[in-house]
Amino acid sequence: MSDTRFPVLIVGGGIVGLSASLFLSAHGVKSLVVERRSGTSTHPRARGLNRRTMELYRSIGIDEAVRAAGAALAPSFGIYQGSSLVEVVESHPRKEDKGTPLLPGAAYFSYLGPVEGARGTQDMIEPVLLSAVRDRGGAVQFSTECIGFDQGSDGVTATLSDRNTGSMTTVNAKYLIAADGANSPIRRILGVQTTGAGTLGHLLSVLFHADLSELVRGRKFSMCLVDQPAVKGLFTSINNHDRWIFHLSYDPRKNKVEDFSPEHCEKLLKLALGLSDIEIEIESILPWEPTVRVAEAFQHGRVFLAGDAAHQMPPWGGQGATTGIADVHNLAWKLAAVLHEQAAPTLLETYDAERLPIGRLVSDESGAASREDGLISLKKSIPSILALIRRLPRIAGYGYVYSSRAIDEDDTTPILHKIAGLLPSPAWALGLCGNAGSRAPHIWVQRNGLRISTLDLFTKNFVIMAGTQGKEWCHAVSSVATLLKVELDAYVVGRESKLVAPDGQWEYAAGISPKGAVLVRPDGFVAWRSWGMPSNAERKLGDVLKKVLGR
Protein backbone atom coordinates (compact mmCIF):
# COMPACT_ATOMS: atom_id res chain seq x y z
CA MET A 1 0.00 0.00 0.00
CA SER A 2 1.90 3.02 -1.27
CA ASP A 3 -0.59 5.63 -0.06
CA THR A 4 -1.38 5.63 3.66
CA ARG A 5 -3.68 8.65 3.54
CA PHE A 6 -7.26 8.36 2.39
CA PRO A 7 -10.27 10.62 2.84
CA VAL A 8 -12.32 7.62 4.05
CA LEU A 9 -11.26 4.28 5.53
CA ILE A 10 -13.89 1.54 5.26
CA VAL A 11 -13.47 -1.37 7.65
CA GLY A 12 -15.33 -4.37 6.23
CA GLY A 13 -15.28 -5.51 2.61
CA GLY A 14 -18.66 -7.19 2.43
CA ILE A 15 -21.65 -6.01 0.43
CA VAL A 16 -22.11 -2.85 2.54
CA GLY A 17 -18.45 -1.84 2.66
CA LEU A 18 -17.95 -2.34 -1.09
CA SER A 19 -21.15 -0.38 -1.79
CA ALA A 20 -19.86 2.45 0.40
CA SER A 21 -16.69 2.64 -1.68
CA LEU A 22 -18.70 2.78 -4.91
CA PHE A 23 -21.02 5.52 -3.66
CA LEU A 24 -18.04 7.58 -2.45
CA SER A 25 -16.27 7.15 -5.80
CA ALA A 26 -19.40 8.44 -7.54
CA HIS A 27 -18.90 11.66 -5.56
CA GLY A 28 -15.20 11.87 -6.33
CA VAL A 29 -14.04 10.66 -2.90
CA LYS A 30 -11.26 8.08 -2.64
CA SER A 31 -11.45 5.34 -0.05
CA LEU A 32 -9.60 2.31 1.24
CA VAL A 33 -11.56 -0.85 2.04
CA VAL A 34 -9.93 -3.35 4.40
CA GLU A 35 -11.36 -6.82 4.98
CA ARG A 36 -10.07 -9.45 7.41
CA ARG A 37 -11.20 -12.33 5.16
CA SER A 38 -9.04 -13.44 2.25
CA GLY A 39 -11.67 -12.52 -0.34
CA THR A 40 -15.33 -11.87 -0.95
CA SER A 41 -17.99 -13.96 0.76
CA THR A 42 -18.02 -17.69 0.00
CA HIS A 43 -21.30 -18.19 1.86
CA PRO A 44 -24.58 -17.13 0.20
CA ARG A 45 -26.07 -15.15 3.14
CA ALA A 46 -28.42 -12.40 1.83
CA ARG A 47 -30.53 -13.61 -1.12
CA GLY A 48 -32.11 -10.56 -2.67
CA LEU A 49 -32.03 -6.81 -3.24
CA ASN A 50 -35.16 -4.70 -3.07
CA ARG A 51 -36.34 -2.09 -5.54
CA ARG A 52 -34.72 0.84 -3.74
CA THR A 53 -31.34 -0.91 -3.60
CA MET A 54 -31.48 -1.57 -7.34
CA GLU A 55 -32.32 2.12 -7.87
CA LEU A 56 -29.14 2.98 -5.98
CA TYR A 57 -27.10 0.53 -8.06
CA ARG A 58 -28.71 1.95 -11.21
CA SER A 59 -27.47 5.40 -10.18
CA ILE A 60 -23.87 4.16 -10.38
CA GLY A 61 -24.40 1.99 -13.44
CA ILE A 62 -24.06 -1.52 -12.01
CA ASP A 63 -27.68 -2.66 -11.72
CA GLU A 64 -27.61 -4.83 -14.85
CA ALA A 65 -24.38 -6.57 -13.80
CA VAL A 66 -25.81 -7.23 -10.33
CA ARG A 67 -29.02 -8.62 -11.78
CA ALA A 68 -27.10 -10.89 -14.15
CA ALA A 69 -24.98 -12.21 -11.27
CA GLY A 70 -28.09 -13.46 -9.49
CA ALA A 71 -29.82 -14.88 -12.55
CA ALA A 72 -29.66 -18.48 -11.28
CA LEU A 73 -31.71 -17.58 -8.21
CA ALA A 74 -34.15 -15.30 -10.03
CA PRO A 75 -36.88 -17.94 -10.70
CA SER A 76 -37.13 -18.91 -7.01
CA PHE A 77 -40.48 -17.89 -5.51
CA GLY A 78 -42.81 -19.26 -2.90
CA ILE A 79 -42.49 -19.92 0.83
CA TYR A 80 -43.88 -23.28 1.89
CA GLN A 81 -43.92 -25.57 4.91
CA GLY A 82 -44.37 -29.27 5.59
CA SER A 83 -42.73 -32.31 7.11
CA SER A 84 -40.17 -32.70 4.31
CA LEU A 85 -39.07 -30.94 1.15
CA VAL A 86 -40.22 -33.81 -1.05
CA GLU A 87 -43.70 -33.78 0.49
CA VAL A 88 -44.03 -30.05 -0.12
CA VAL A 89 -42.57 -29.86 -3.62
CA GLU A 90 -44.38 -32.93 -4.97
CA SER A 91 -47.70 -31.48 -3.80
CA HIS A 92 -47.32 -28.74 -6.43
CA PRO A 93 -47.91 -29.42 -10.12
CA ARG A 94 -45.09 -28.70 -12.53
CA LYS A 95 -45.40 -25.47 -14.46
CA GLU A 96 -43.97 -24.57 -17.83
CA ASP A 97 -40.85 -22.43 -17.56
CA LYS A 98 -41.84 -19.03 -18.98
CA GLY A 99 -38.64 -17.18 -18.11
CA THR A 100 -37.82 -15.18 -15.04
CA PRO A 101 -41.00 -14.00 -13.30
CA LEU A 102 -41.33 -10.67 -11.58
CA LEU A 103 -40.73 -10.47 -7.87
CA PRO A 104 -43.90 -10.67 -5.74
CA GLY A 105 -45.67 -7.31 -5.74
CA ALA A 106 -43.56 -6.01 -8.64
CA ALA A 107 -46.58 -5.15 -10.77
CA TYR A 108 -48.04 -3.08 -7.90
CA PHE A 109 -44.80 -1.13 -7.38
CA SER A 110 -43.72 -0.88 -11.03
CA TYR A 111 -44.89 2.70 -11.62
CA LEU A 112 -43.02 3.92 -8.52
CA GLY A 113 -39.50 3.40 -9.82
CA PRO A 114 -37.44 2.58 -12.92
CA VAL A 115 -36.15 -0.86 -11.88
CA GLU A 116 -37.40 -4.04 -10.24
CA GLY A 117 -35.79 -5.74 -7.28
CA ALA A 118 -33.33 -8.53 -7.98
CA ARG A 119 -32.44 -11.94 -6.60
CA GLY A 120 -28.89 -12.93 -5.83
CA THR A 121 -26.79 -14.10 -2.91
CA GLN A 122 -23.83 -12.23 -1.47
CA ASP A 123 -21.29 -14.65 -2.91
CA MET A 124 -22.76 -13.87 -6.36
CA ILE A 125 -23.02 -10.10 -5.91
CA GLU A 126 -19.87 -9.15 -4.00
CA PRO A 127 -17.47 -10.06 -6.86
CA VAL A 128 -19.44 -7.69 -9.12
CA LEU A 129 -19.09 -4.92 -6.55
CA LEU A 130 -15.39 -5.63 -6.03
CA SER A 131 -14.69 -5.43 -9.75
CA ALA A 132 -16.57 -2.13 -9.99
CA VAL A 133 -14.73 -0.70 -6.96
CA ARG A 134 -11.35 -1.45 -8.54
CA ASP A 135 -12.43 -0.20 -11.97
CA ARG A 136 -13.35 3.13 -10.39
CA GLY A 137 -10.13 3.64 -8.49
CA GLY A 138 -11.11 2.29 -5.09
CA ALA A 139 -8.47 0.49 -3.04
CA VAL A 140 -9.29 -2.86 -1.42
CA GLN A 141 -7.05 -4.93 0.85
CA PHE A 142 -8.09 -8.41 1.92
CA SER A 143 -6.54 -10.39 4.80
CA THR A 144 -6.19 -7.05 6.55
CA GLU A 145 -7.57 -6.35 10.00
CA CYS A 146 -8.09 -3.03 11.76
CA ILE A 147 -6.76 -3.76 15.26
CA GLY A 148 -7.11 -0.27 16.70
CA PHE A 149 -7.62 3.39 15.94
CA ASP A 150 -7.48 6.86 17.45
CA GLN A 151 -9.49 9.83 16.36
CA GLY A 152 -8.81 13.50 16.82
CA SER A 153 -9.98 16.85 15.56
CA ASP A 154 -8.37 16.32 12.14
CA GLY A 155 -9.05 12.67 11.42
CA VAL A 156 -8.65 9.02 12.32
CA THR A 157 -5.40 7.09 12.62
CA ALA A 158 -5.92 3.34 12.23
CA THR A 159 -3.52 0.46 12.78
CA LEU A 160 -3.89 -2.34 10.24
CA SER A 161 -2.48 -5.84 10.52
CA ASP A 162 -1.71 -8.10 7.57
CA ARG A 163 -3.12 -11.45 8.67
CA ASN A 164 -0.74 -13.36 6.40
CA THR A 165 2.55 -11.74 7.39
CA GLY A 166 1.74 -10.05 10.70
CA SER A 167 3.13 -6.74 9.44
CA MET A 168 1.58 -3.50 10.69
CA THR A 169 0.57 -0.42 8.72
CA THR A 170 -0.73 2.94 9.90
CA VAL A 171 -3.41 4.61 7.81
CA ASN A 172 -4.63 8.18 8.23
CA ALA A 173 -8.16 9.05 7.14
CA LYS A 174 -10.53 11.93 7.65
CA TYR A 175 -13.39 9.54 8.45
CA LEU A 176 -13.94 5.85 9.14
CA ILE A 177 -16.96 3.74 8.15
CA ALA A 178 -17.36 0.58 10.22
CA ALA A 179 -19.11 -2.00 8.03
CA ASP A 180 -17.46 -4.87 9.88
CA GLY A 181 -20.48 -7.00 10.67
CA ALA A 182 -22.73 -8.00 13.53
CA ASN A 183 -19.83 -8.64 15.91
CA SER A 184 -18.17 -5.38 14.87
CA PRO A 185 -14.74 -4.96 16.52
CA ILE A 186 -15.00 -1.22 15.81
CA ARG A 187 -18.27 -1.01 17.71
CA ARG A 188 -16.70 -2.96 20.56
CA ILE A 189 -13.66 -0.66 20.69
CA LEU A 190 -15.98 2.35 20.81
CA GLY A 191 -17.96 0.76 23.64
CA VAL A 192 -21.27 1.35 21.87
CA GLN A 193 -24.32 -0.03 23.67
CA THR A 194 -27.12 -1.78 21.75
CA THR A 195 -30.84 -2.22 22.30
CA GLY A 196 -33.39 -4.69 20.94
CA ALA A 197 -34.92 -8.08 21.58
CA GLY A 198 -31.51 -9.79 21.40
CA THR A 199 -31.05 -13.41 20.35
CA LEU A 200 -34.21 -15.06 19.02
CA GLY A 201 -32.92 -18.55 18.34
CA HIS A 202 -29.94 -20.75 17.46
CA LEU A 203 -29.39 -22.01 13.93
CA LEU A 204 -26.75 -23.75 11.87
CA SER A 205 -26.47 -22.60 8.28
CA VAL A 206 -25.59 -25.77 6.36
CA LEU A 207 -24.43 -25.07 2.81
CA PHE A 208 -24.60 -28.29 0.81
CA HIS A 209 -24.58 -29.78 -2.67
CA ALA A 210 -27.27 -32.21 -3.78
CA ASP A 211 -28.72 -32.66 -7.25
CA LEU A 212 -32.41 -31.77 -6.82
CA SER A 213 -32.87 -30.44 -10.34
CA GLU A 214 -35.41 -33.09 -11.34
CA LEU A 215 -37.39 -32.66 -8.12
CA VAL A 216 -37.77 -28.88 -8.54
CA ARG A 217 -38.10 -28.78 -12.33
CA GLY A 218 -41.15 -26.68 -13.08
CA ARG A 219 -41.82 -26.07 -9.38
CA LYS A 220 -38.93 -24.03 -8.08
CA PHE A 221 -39.27 -22.52 -4.62
CA SER A 222 -37.61 -19.83 -2.53
CA MET A 223 -37.93 -21.20 1.01
CA CYS A 224 -39.42 -24.30 2.61
CA LEU A 225 -39.94 -24.66 6.35
CA VAL A 226 -39.60 -28.23 7.58
CA ASP A 227 -41.03 -29.37 10.92
CA GLN A 228 -40.77 -32.92 12.22
CA PRO A 229 -39.79 -34.39 15.62
CA ALA A 230 -36.24 -35.29 14.58
CA VAL A 231 -35.38 -32.14 12.63
CA LYS A 232 -36.69 -28.66 11.97
CA GLY A 233 -35.26 -25.93 9.82
CA LEU A 234 -35.58 -23.93 6.63
CA PHE A 235 -34.42 -24.82 3.11
CA THR A 236 -33.43 -21.89 0.90
CA SER A 237 -32.68 -22.08 -2.83
CA ILE A 238 -29.34 -20.89 -4.16
CA ASN A 239 -29.10 -22.00 -7.80
CA ASN A 240 -32.20 -24.21 -8.20
CA HIS A 241 -30.01 -27.12 -9.16
CA ASP A 242 -27.43 -28.52 -6.79
CA ARG A 243 -26.57 -25.79 -4.27
CA TRP A 244 -28.81 -25.24 -1.25
CA ILE A 245 -28.83 -24.03 2.33
CA PHE A 246 -30.60 -25.59 5.28
CA HIS A 247 -30.96 -23.45 8.39
CA LEU A 248 -31.02 -26.13 11.05
CA SER A 249 -32.63 -25.19 14.37
CA TYR A 250 -31.09 -26.58 17.56
CA ASP A 251 -31.43 -26.09 21.31
CA PRO A 252 -28.09 -25.11 22.93
CA ARG A 253 -29.37 -26.49 26.24
CA LYS A 254 -29.42 -29.95 24.67
CA ASN A 255 -26.73 -29.81 22.00
CA LYS A 256 -23.50 -28.00 21.31
CA VAL A 257 -22.40 -26.77 17.90
CA GLU A 258 -19.64 -29.39 18.00
CA ASP A 259 -22.29 -32.13 18.13
CA PHE A 260 -23.29 -31.36 14.55
CA SER A 261 -20.54 -33.05 12.57
CA PRO A 262 -20.85 -33.22 8.77
CA GLU A 263 -21.92 -36.85 9.10
CA HIS A 264 -24.66 -35.98 11.60
CA CYS A 265 -25.84 -33.03 9.52
CA GLU A 266 -26.00 -35.27 6.45
CA LYS A 267 -28.37 -37.64 8.26
CA LEU A 268 -30.58 -34.73 9.34
CA LEU A 269 -30.58 -33.32 5.82
CA LYS A 270 -31.81 -36.61 4.38
CA LEU A 271 -34.65 -36.63 6.89
CA ALA A 272 -35.57 -33.04 6.10
CA LEU A 273 -35.34 -33.65 2.37
CA GLY A 274 -37.37 -36.86 2.59
CA LEU A 275 -34.73 -38.61 0.46
CA SER A 276 -32.75 -41.40 2.11
CA ASP A 277 -30.52 -42.36 -0.80
CA ILE A 278 -29.49 -38.97 -2.21
CA GLU A 279 -25.82 -38.06 -2.42
CA ILE A 280 -25.00 -35.00 -0.29
CA GLU A 281 -21.79 -33.00 -0.05
CA ILE A 282 -21.61 -30.51 2.79
CA GLU A 283 -19.55 -27.41 1.99
CA SER A 284 -19.77 -25.54 5.29
CA ILE A 285 -21.61 -25.44 8.63
CA LEU A 286 -21.84 -22.00 10.19
CA PRO A 287 -23.61 -21.29 13.49
CA TRP A 288 -25.61 -18.08 13.65
CA GLU A 289 -28.24 -16.48 15.81
CA PRO A 290 -31.28 -14.59 14.48
CA THR A 291 -30.94 -11.40 16.50
CA VAL A 292 -32.46 -7.97 16.92
CA ARG A 293 -29.75 -5.59 18.09
CA VAL A 294 -29.43 -1.89 17.19
CA ALA A 295 -26.64 0.48 18.20
CA GLU A 296 -27.77 3.38 20.37
CA ALA A 297 -25.99 5.77 17.98
CA PHE A 298 -24.49 5.32 14.51
CA GLN A 299 -22.12 8.30 14.57
CA HIS A 300 -19.24 8.45 17.05
CA GLY A 301 -17.10 11.44 16.22
CA ARG A 302 -15.46 10.66 12.91
CA VAL A 303 -16.52 7.01 12.98
CA PHE A 304 -19.81 5.83 11.48
CA LEU A 305 -21.45 2.44 11.97
CA ALA A 306 -23.28 0.92 8.99
CA GLY A 307 -24.95 -2.35 8.06
CA ASP A 308 -24.91 -5.16 10.61
CA ALA A 309 -22.45 -3.19 12.75
CA ALA A 310 -25.25 -0.65 13.26
CA HIS A 311 -28.35 -2.86 13.18
CA GLN A 312 -28.62 -6.63 13.28
CA MET A 313 -31.88 -8.31 12.31
CA PRO A 314 -33.20 -11.70 11.16
CA PRO A 315 -33.14 -12.12 7.36
CA TRP A 316 -36.89 -12.77 7.02
CA GLY A 317 -37.93 -10.01 4.64
CA GLY A 318 -34.49 -9.33 3.19
CA GLN A 319 -33.87 -6.13 5.13
CA GLY A 320 -30.35 -6.68 6.48
CA ALA A 321 -28.08 -6.00 3.49
CA THR A 322 -30.48 -3.59 1.80
CA THR A 323 -30.78 -1.42 4.92
CA GLY A 324 -26.99 -1.34 5.22
CA ILE A 325 -26.62 -0.31 1.58
CA ALA A 326 -29.12 2.50 2.15
CA ASP A 327 -27.08 3.56 5.21
CA VAL A 328 -23.89 4.13 3.25
CA HIS A 329 -25.70 5.75 0.34
CA ASN A 330 -27.17 8.26 2.79
CA LEU A 331 -23.73 8.83 4.31
CA ALA A 332 -21.65 9.03 1.12
CA TRP A 333 -23.01 12.30 -0.26
CA LYS A 334 -22.76 13.92 3.17
CA LEU A 335 -19.12 12.90 3.59
CA ALA A 336 -18.42 14.15 0.07
CA ALA A 337 -20.09 17.51 0.75
CA VAL A 338 -18.02 18.00 3.91
CA LEU A 339 -14.75 16.80 2.36
CA HIS A 340 -15.31 19.09 -0.63
CA GLU A 341 -16.00 21.97 1.79
CA GLN A 342 -19.50 22.53 0.47
CA ALA A 343 -21.11 21.64 3.81
CA ALA A 344 -20.30 22.06 7.47
CA PRO A 345 -19.36 18.96 9.51
CA THR A 346 -22.70 19.30 11.31
CA LEU A 347 -24.32 17.83 8.19
CA LEU A 348 -22.87 14.48 9.26
CA GLU A 349 -24.98 14.57 12.42
CA THR A 350 -28.06 14.04 10.27
CA TYR A 351 -26.87 10.48 9.53
CA ASP A 352 -28.06 9.43 12.97
CA ALA A 353 -31.25 11.46 12.75
CA GLU A 354 -32.22 9.90 9.41
CA ARG A 355 -30.92 6.33 9.54
CA LEU A 356 -31.24 5.33 13.20
CA PRO A 357 -35.09 5.39 13.23
CA ILE A 358 -35.14 3.29 10.04
CA GLY A 359 -32.66 0.81 11.48
CA ARG A 360 -34.81 0.37 14.57
CA LEU A 361 -38.04 0.05 12.61
CA VAL A 362 -36.91 -2.61 10.14
CA SER A 363 -35.03 -4.53 12.84
CA ASP A 364 -38.14 -4.73 14.99
CA GLU A 365 -40.30 -5.67 11.99
CA SER A 366 -37.87 -8.42 10.98
CA GLY A 367 -37.79 -9.72 14.54
CA ALA A 368 -41.58 -9.81 14.67
CA ALA A 369 -41.53 -12.04 11.56
CA SER A 370 -39.64 -14.74 13.50
CA ARG A 371 -40.97 -17.74 15.40
CA GLU A 372 -39.95 -18.45 18.97
CA ASP A 373 -37.03 -20.55 17.65
CA GLY A 374 -35.82 -17.80 15.31
CA LEU A 375 -37.04 -19.39 12.07
CA ILE A 376 -39.43 -17.50 9.79
CA SER A 377 -43.03 -17.37 10.98
CA LEU A 378 -45.66 -18.47 8.47
CA LYS A 379 -48.70 -17.81 10.63
CA LYS A 380 -51.84 -17.02 8.64
CA SER A 381 -53.72 -15.27 11.42
CA ILE A 382 -55.28 -11.87 10.75
CA PRO A 383 -52.72 -10.03 12.96
CA SER A 384 -49.86 -11.73 11.09
CA ILE A 385 -51.34 -10.84 7.70
CA LEU A 386 -51.86 -7.22 8.78
CA ALA A 387 -48.27 -7.06 10.06
CA LEU A 388 -47.02 -8.31 6.69
CA ILE A 389 -49.08 -5.68 4.86
CA ARG A 390 -47.57 -2.97 7.06
CA ARG A 391 -44.08 -4.29 6.28
CA LEU A 392 -44.52 -4.42 2.49
CA PRO A 393 -43.34 -0.83 1.85
CA ARG A 394 -40.08 -1.47 3.73
CA ILE A 395 -39.62 -4.83 2.00
CA ALA A 396 -39.70 -2.91 -1.29
CA GLY A 397 -37.29 -0.32 0.14
CA TYR A 398 -39.82 2.47 0.59
CA GLY A 399 -42.28 3.47 3.29
CA TYR A 400 -40.27 5.97 5.32
CA VAL A 401 -39.63 9.71 5.38
CA TYR A 402 -36.57 11.47 6.79
CA SER A 403 -36.76 14.24 9.35
CA SER A 404 -33.56 16.13 10.16
CA ARG A 405 -31.78 19.44 9.80
CA ALA A 406 -30.94 18.41 6.24
CA ILE A 407 -34.67 18.64 5.40
CA ASP A 408 -36.64 21.91 5.23
CA GLU A 409 -40.26 21.13 6.01
CA ASP A 410 -41.53 24.66 5.29
CA ASP A 411 -44.45 23.94 2.93
CA THR A 412 -46.58 26.51 1.10
CA THR A 413 -49.08 23.96 -0.23
CA PRO A 414 -52.65 25.34 -0.02
CA ILE A 415 -54.80 23.78 2.69
CA LEU A 416 -57.21 22.11 0.25
CA HIS A 417 -54.34 20.33 -1.49
CA LYS A 418 -52.89 19.29 1.85
CA ILE A 419 -56.23 17.76 2.79
CA ALA A 420 -56.39 15.98 -0.57
CA GLY A 421 -52.89 14.68 0.09
CA LEU A 422 -54.13 12.96 3.23
CA LEU A 423 -56.35 10.66 1.18
CA PRO A 424 -54.81 7.17 1.09
CA SER A 425 -52.89 6.40 -2.09
CA PRO A 426 -50.00 4.08 -2.92
CA ALA A 427 -47.54 6.98 -3.24
CA TRP A 428 -48.70 8.45 0.09
CA ALA A 429 -48.51 5.09 1.86
CA LEU A 430 -45.01 4.47 0.55
CA GLY A 431 -43.68 7.96 1.29
CA LEU A 432 -43.15 8.82 -2.39
CA CYS A 433 -45.49 11.77 -2.88
CA GLY A 434 -42.94 14.58 -3.19
CA ASN A 435 -43.14 15.94 0.34
CA ALA A 436 -39.96 17.02 2.11
CA GLY A 437 -37.99 14.08 3.45
CA SER A 438 -39.38 11.54 0.96
CA ARG A 439 -37.61 9.81 -1.89
CA ALA A 440 -38.24 11.99 -4.94
CA PRO A 441 -41.03 10.84 -7.27
CA HIS A 442 -40.26 8.80 -10.37
CA ILE A 443 -41.79 9.50 -13.76
CA TRP A 444 -40.44 8.62 -17.21
CA VAL A 445 -39.23 11.62 -19.23
CA GLN A 446 -37.44 12.21 -22.54
CA ARG A 447 -34.10 14.01 -22.48
CA ASN A 448 -32.20 14.52 -25.72
CA GLY A 449 -34.35 11.82 -27.29
CA LEU A 450 -33.59 9.26 -24.59
CA ARG A 451 -36.12 7.84 -22.15
CA ILE A 452 -34.87 8.22 -18.58
CA SER A 453 -36.30 8.25 -15.09
CA THR A 454 -36.36 11.43 -13.06
CA LEU A 455 -34.37 9.42 -10.51
CA ASP A 456 -31.50 9.21 -13.02
CA LEU A 457 -30.95 12.95 -12.47
CA PHE A 458 -30.28 12.63 -8.74
CA THR A 459 -26.80 11.16 -8.60
CA LYS A 460 -24.24 13.80 -7.59
CA ASN A 461 -25.64 17.35 -7.41
CA PHE A 462 -28.60 19.08 -5.81
CA VAL A 463 -31.40 19.40 -8.36
CA ILE A 464 -34.40 21.72 -8.72
CA MET A 465 -37.29 20.03 -10.56
CA ALA A 466 -39.90 22.58 -11.59
CA GLY A 467 -43.36 22.40 -13.12
CA THR A 468 -44.26 23.41 -16.66
CA GLN A 469 -44.34 27.15 -15.83
CA GLY A 470 -41.27 27.13 -13.60
CA LYS A 471 -38.60 28.62 -15.89
CA GLU A 472 -37.83 31.34 -13.34
CA TRP A 473 -36.40 28.65 -11.08
CA CYS A 474 -33.53 28.23 -13.54
CA HIS A 475 -32.50 31.87 -13.07
CA ALA A 476 -32.70 31.55 -9.30
CA VAL A 477 -30.60 28.39 -9.38
CA SER A 478 -27.83 30.03 -11.39
CA SER A 479 -27.45 32.88 -8.89
CA VAL A 480 -27.63 30.66 -5.79
CA ALA A 481 -25.15 28.11 -7.16
CA THR A 482 -22.63 30.89 -7.87
CA LEU A 483 -23.15 32.56 -4.50
CA LEU A 484 -22.87 29.38 -2.41
CA LYS A 485 -20.36 27.59 -4.68
CA VAL A 486 -22.59 24.53 -4.81
CA GLU A 487 -23.26 22.28 -7.80
CA LEU A 488 -26.96 22.86 -8.45
CA ASP A 489 -28.90 21.72 -11.53
CA ALA A 490 -32.34 22.89 -12.63
CA TYR A 491 -34.94 21.30 -14.90
CA VAL A 492 -38.42 22.22 -16.06
CA VAL A 493 -40.65 19.24 -16.85
CA GLY A 494 -43.30 19.50 -19.57
CA ARG A 495 -44.11 19.00 -23.24
CA GLU A 496 -41.99 21.97 -24.37
CA SER A 497 -39.12 21.53 -21.90
CA LYS A 498 -35.72 19.83 -21.88
CA LEU A 499 -37.31 17.10 -19.81
CA VAL A 500 -40.27 16.10 -21.93
CA ALA A 501 -43.34 14.66 -20.22
CA PRO A 502 -47.08 15.30 -20.47
CA ASP A 503 -47.97 18.64 -18.92
CA GLY A 504 -49.07 18.19 -15.33
CA GLN A 505 -47.57 14.74 -14.82
CA TRP A 506 -44.62 15.95 -12.76
CA GLU A 507 -46.77 18.41 -10.83
CA TYR A 508 -49.17 15.61 -9.87
CA ALA A 509 -46.37 13.28 -8.81
CA ALA A 510 -44.50 15.93 -6.81
CA GLY A 511 -47.52 17.70 -5.29
CA ILE A 512 -46.73 21.14 -6.74
CA SER A 513 -48.39 23.74 -8.98
CA PRO A 514 -47.13 24.44 -12.54
CA LYS A 515 -44.89 27.18 -11.06
CA GLY A 516 -43.72 25.07 -8.13
CA ALA A 517 -40.62 22.95 -7.65
CA VAL A 518 -38.90 20.46 -5.40
CA LEU A 519 -35.27 20.63 -4.32
CA VAL A 520 -33.77 17.14 -4.40
CA ARG A 521 -30.61 16.12 -2.54
CA PRO A 522 -27.81 14.08 -4.18
CA ASP A 523 -29.24 10.94 -2.53
CA GLY A 524 -32.58 11.40 -4.31
CA PHE A 525 -34.53 12.62 -1.26
CA VAL A 526 -36.58 15.82 -1.34
CA ALA A 527 -34.93 18.52 0.75
CA TRP A 528 -37.69 21.10 0.23
CA ARG A 529 -40.92 21.51 -1.70
CA SER A 530 -42.39 24.80 -2.87
CA TRP A 531 -45.98 24.77 -4.10
CA GLY A 532 -45.41 27.83 -6.32
CA MET A 533 -42.76 30.40 -7.13
CA PRO A 534 -42.06 32.50 -4.01
CA SER A 535 -41.55 36.23 -4.52
CA ASN A 536 -38.05 35.96 -3.08
CA ALA A 537 -37.10 32.70 -4.75
CA GLU A 538 -33.34 33.30 -4.82
CA ARG A 539 -33.14 34.20 -1.14
CA LYS A 540 -35.47 31.38 -0.08
CA LEU A 541 -33.59 28.76 -2.10
CA GLY A 542 -30.30 30.02 -0.73
CA ASP A 543 -31.57 29.88 2.84
CA VAL A 544 -32.86 26.34 2.35
CA LEU A 545 -29.56 25.14 0.90
CA LYS A 546 -27.57 26.74 3.70
CA LYS A 547 -29.79 25.03 6.25
CA VAL A 548 -29.50 21.67 4.56
CA LEU A 549 -25.71 21.97 4.33
CA GLY A 550 -25.36 23.26 7.88
CA ARG A 551 -23.83 26.55 6.76
UniProtKB/TrEMBL annotation:
The keyword Oxidoreductase applies. Gene3D superfamilies: 3.40.30.120, D-Amino Acid Oxidase, subunit A, domain 2, FAD/NAD(P)-binding domain. Keywords: FAD, Flavoprotein, Membrane, Oxidoreductase, Transmembrane, Transmembrane helix. Pfam families: FAD_binding_3 (PF01494), Rng_hyd_C (PF21274). The chain crosses the membrane at residues 6-29. SUPFAM superfamilies: FAD/NAD(P)-binding domain. GO terms for molecular function: FAD binding; oxidoreductase activity, acting on paired donors, with incorporation or reduction of molecular oxygen, NAD(P)H as one donor, and incorporation of one atom of oxygen. Its cofactor is FAD. Residues 6-365 form the FAD-binding domain. InterPro entries: FAD-bd, FAD/NAD-bd_sf, RIFMO-like. PANTHER family: BINDING MONOOXYGENASE, PUTATIVE (JCVI)-RELATED, TRK SYSTEM POTASSIUM UPTAKE PROTEIN. This is FAD-binding domain-containing protein.
